[in-house]
Every structure is written in C-alpha cells, then in structure tokens.
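Its record is quoted verbatim for completeness.
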Amino acid sequence: MQILGAVAFAHLLNDLVQAMLPSIYPMLKAEFGLSFTQVGLITLTFQCTASLLQPWIGLYTDRRPMPYLLPAGMVATFIGVLMMAVAHSFPALLVSAALIGVGSSTFHPEASRVARTASGGRFGFAQSLFQVGGNVGSALGPVLAAAIIIGRGQGNIGWFAVLVGVAFAVLVYVSRWHSAHLASLPRKKAVVAQSPLPKARVYGALAVLALLVFSKYIYMSSLSSYYTFYLIDKFGVSVSSAQMYLFLFLAAVAAGTFMGGPIGDRIGRKRVIWMSILGAAPFTLALPYVDLFWTAVLTVVIGFVISSAFSAIVVFAQELMPGKVGMIAGIFFGLMFGVSGIGAAAMGHIADVAGIAYVYQLCSYLPLLGILTVLLPHIEQHKR
C-alpha cells in the first residue's frame, strides 16, 4: 500500500501539471491571439508525444524493466513547464507542450507496471488507485491554475515546476523499491504466458476496447479542452467561475475512476464497461439543451459514470494478453492521449467553423458506441 500510495501520488502530480495546460488555454488564447484551431494543435502536440512513445516503452520494458525511467521522464516535464513559462511564440508553446507529453509517455507504462506489481493480486483496485491519483491531479489542475496563473501572468506557470520536482523525488523512492524487488526475484527460464482465448478473438476484443476508448476519450476531450469556452460562450460566466465548473467535472471523473476498478473486481469488468459508456449516453444527449444549473449537474453525472470504465478496460486488456502488462498499459494510455489530442484538434476546427455549442451537440452521440461492449468475451468464464 505504501508503494501504491506513492505511485498514485506521483500520478496525481504528473496529471496535475498536464491539467494545467488546458486550464490556461483562455489566457494563452488572449495573450497570443490564438484561434480555436491553434488551441487544438497545442493539445494535439502534447497528446501525440504523450501517446506515440508509450506502447514502445511498454513493449521494451516488458523485456527489460527500467525502474529509473520514472524519474528520468520527470526531467522532460520539468524542462517543458519552465519553457512554457517563458515562451514568446506559438512554436515555443508547441515545443514545451511536446516536452510535457514526453514526460507523460515515459511515466505511465512503467508506473502502471509498478502498481500491478504492488497490487497483491487485486489488479482492479491497484489500477483504480493508480488511475484515481491521476484524476485527482486533473481535477486540482484547473483550481491551482486559477489560483496561481490566471490573472497573474504566464511567468507564474513556472511555479508548477516545484510540483514536478516533488514528483521526481517520490519516483526516485519508487524506483529504488522496484529495482530492489526485481533484484530479489529468482532467476528462472522465461515462460510465455498464454491467453485464455484464440488469437483472432483476442485481437477482435482489443479492437472493440480501442473503439470504446475512442468514444469515451473523444467525448472527454470535448469537456476537458473546451468546457470553459462553452460555459463562457453560452452562459457568460467568468474564466474563474468556468474553472470551478471544470473542477466539479474532473472531481466526478476522479470519483468514478476510483469506483470502477474495485467494482470490476467484484462483478466483472465487462459489466462495468457496459454500464459506464452506454450508461452515460442519456446524459450526454441532454447536455446541449439545458441551462447552467443542469449543465453542471449533468457534467458531474457524466464524469462519474463514463470515467469508471478505463481501469476496467486496461485490466481486461491485460488479462487478454498476459505477460504484456507494460505494452498493454502503453497502448491504452497512449491511445487515450492520442485520441484525445486528435479529437481536440478536430473539435477546435469545428468550433471555429460552426461554434462551440455545435461541438457538444455533435459529440453527444459518441457514448452510444458503448453498445459494442456486447461483442466482448466473458473472459472470466474462459479462465475457468
């Protein structure tokens, strides 16, 4: 539990810094005269570097674990944060966002492996605790951005480098434990772990899980990247007030993430995935047509319901391909970031052309893809 707590806390700090980026978009848009398309490109740049490296890092560390890769990744994040605090051009913003993404891509696969190693067999609980750390950080990011940066200038972004330094120190401790744990394991001939399903069924199930991640994170990206703009445009709220509404949504995401893993351990991950994604559809369909109060209520419900699926999806995929823990974590965390980035860029262009409100009308149908969950196998039965 001590190691799980440490890696979850590091995830909190890592994702808090990441959440700072979309939280300051209104300020950057005003200071640099950016279009919505350019705002989307910042997200795309961050998400691409955060996604493209992750599967390869996971695949490599499945064969050759690299515990000290965790604090090394924080160095890239540290440089990116400091660079963003002093950037004077749009290309410099893109480079700094890319460096923060590189730090993220080196963190998630190995940190997810550490969480599973320290789980004691409670894989869903461990993945949820690890993931909820990130979600709590994502919820706190807008609050700290509003308190430290908004209204005080771009230079105050540098204060977030202090949090990166704390994360670096925590990850040095975690890496020492993981290194000692690996050294204590007896050396034995590698055994290839076998999936309980035929290869074709495994790849089909992974494709379904990828489509579910697509539907979930395109919609989540519409809220995390453009929710403040939507509230300001439709209801005329202030930037600070919009950040508080964003905090409520992200706090609900954290709560839903934490609940999803343990519930999946008890009732089965397929049921959690089914209820989470398709269950959010009635609320997303209603969201574009309600007033400010009900917008806040519905986004809290949507955040709680739709976020409970991710831990279940990752553990489900790891059970489909045992022995590929790092690679699967890298693929799905990478897919999460990549889909979010592409979606943010596309939605930014749509917002420039058709208005920010139209983005939410269009995206409201995405959770209906949750019906694809019916195609997933009952992996627990195959194990028995």
Remarks:
- Residues 29 and 35 are 7 Å apart (CA to CA).
- The mean pLDDT is 83.
- Residues 199-235 form the longest helix (37 residues).
